Amino acid sequence: MQITDVRVRKVAKEGKLKAVVSITIDDEFVVHDIKVIEGEKGLFIAMPSKKALDGEYRDIAHPINSGTRERIQSTILEKYTESLEEEPEAIAGEM
């Protein structure tokens, strides 16, 4: 499995949610609404979820082993960091 595209949409408001991401796998399958969250120990991802009838949130799509989760998370956080580094240049160019 290869992550062939990552699209980062940064969140402008203050808070723990920093971005919402879509990934494409093998140029054939897309997963939307992966969240980049600032936690106590740093950035992490939360897979797309929905609220169940009992009030708990359950992942809609998720990796089934820790190695795959780590690969997805590291790829997403790398792209998120790159998007932050690009931002100051765009702002400086507008002034």
TrEMBL record:
InterPro entries: SpoVG (IPR007170), SpoVG_sf (IPR036751)
Stretches of the chain forming a coiled coil according to its record: none
Pfam families cross-referenced by the UniProt entry: SpoVG
GO biological process: division septum assembly; sporulation resulting in formation of a cellular spore
UniProt KW keywords: Cell cycle, Cell division, Septation
Entry similarity comment: Belongs to the SpoVG family.
Descriptive protein name: Putative septation protein SpoVG
Organism name: Mediterraneibacter hominis
